[in-house]
Design brief:
Blueprint lengths: L3 E7 L27 H17 L3 E7 L9 H10 L4 E4 L7 H9 L2 E7 L4 H7 L4 H15 L2 E8 L7 H11 L3 E6 L13 H20 L5 E2 L5 H9 L23 E4 L4 E3 L8 E4 L5 H6 L27 H8 L24
């Protein structure tokens, strides 16, 4: 069991972009942008520390927004986390980074900084903001020079799936430390239709070949196979085998929702997953997280409710992405729309679509 417990913490909704696939700004109507006060941020840290003491864990924060650096008390929070030796990653934009800012972040204990590339130049700048493609790759150098691990994350959809291999080439050339992609989750402001299972599996195959070629050439970029359907792909290709000593009923990998992850939004709402829009379980200013984890979060650990995954031999290691299922069908426990598996290879049982 990991010594850390992850908190994805949105300290503000303020952002320099209005991305077409953003879960804060998607859909219709004007959103009221919220930010936590300094007093509220201190309360969040205390609540998370209390939770982790109960479960003998260390809090790990993924500080995000919006763009967290736009919060007026951002640097006060950085100093607070440094004083408590709490490790953290920043998930933000490139616009306010420079060598001096990155050195300050490193001094405060920032371990990683994650930015996004959602296509090559024309596509990415259409999704996000003109000029942001080149700026994102440029700021990788600032992070690397400061000793902060640079992460590039892509949101893959039918619109940009054919550009992912080119993005891989671009991030390697830029010297990115970590690259990963996850799938687009429909939120009501859809920019395209979903990939078919066959299309997505082919994408994984193409990316796997590129990853192996770069690794064989000594490339320093670490390719994080974040999407849990990578487990299915590697099971089929022989890179992953079911452990002989696996215990029935144990969950070893796959989606962290309900296992070691909580999201805290800018208004204090506690969510099982930020990508599952209807997953609010409590409010950090009204509820003790240690109690919430035992009670309200339990429904996200009922693995026998998964309509397809519960019948699959990979249940303990995969389970696809419940957020994508929820966004597509309205059911957290529904079948992952990009999962191509049709049969339990051990029992021979046909899996439901």
């Amino acid at each position: 069991m990991s010594q850390y417990f992850a908190f994805q913490w949105h300290i503000t909704d303020e952002c320099d972009q209005r991305c077409k696939h953003c879960y804060i700004f998607s859909g219709t109507g004007c959103k009221e942008l919220k930010s936590m006060t300094w007093e509220q941020m201190q309360e969040v840290v205390a609540n998370c520390e209390d939770f982790c003491k109960v479960y003998h864990r260390v809090p790990y924060f993924y500080i995000t927004g919006g763009d967290p650096i736009l919060h007026p008390d951002f640097w006060k929070l950085m100093v607070l986390l440094k004083s408590k030796n709490i490790p953290f990653t920043i998930m933000g934009n490139p616009f306010h980074l420079n060598d001096e800012i990155c050195k300050m972040l490193a001094v405060c204990g920032c371990e990683k900084y994650q930015m996004s590339l959602d296509g090559m130049r024309e596509t990415h700048d259409w999704f996000r903001k003109p000029g942001s493609f080149d700026l994102t790759l440029e700021k990788v150098g600032c992070l690397n020079r400061a000793g902060i691990r640079s992460i590039i994350m892509s949101t893959v959809s039918k619109t940009n799936m054919h550009e992912i291999p080119d993005i891989i080439d671009a991030v390697v050339q830029a010297g990115v430390d970590v690259y990963a992609f996850s799938r687009y989750v429909p939120t009501g402001g859809e920019v395209d239709t979903s990939m078919t299972p066959e299309e997505y599996r082919e994408l994984l195959s193409v990316c796997d070949a590129k990853y192996k070629a770069y690794e064989a050439a000594g490339c320093k970029t670490y390719f994080n196979k974040k999407d849990h359907l990578w487990t299915l792909y590697e099971y089929e290709t022989g890179a992953f085998t079911l452990p002989e000593n696996a215990q029935v009923g144990m969950i070893y990998a796959g989606c962290n929702c309900g296992n070691c992850h909580i999201t805290i939004s800018s208004n204090g709402d506690v969510m099982a997953c930020r990508r599952v829009m209807d997953s609010k379980v409590a409010n950090v200013f009204e509820d003790r997280l240690a109690d919430v984890w035992i009670c309200q979060m339990e429904k996200y650990r009922d693995y026998e409710k998964f309509s397809k995954c519960s019948k699959c031999e990979l249940k303990a290691w995969c389970r696809g992405c419940p957020a994508v299922a929820n966004g597509t069908t309205g059911s957290f426990y529904g079948a992952d729309p990009q999962c191509w598996k049709t049969r339990n290879e051990i029992t021979g049982e046909v899996l439901p679509c």
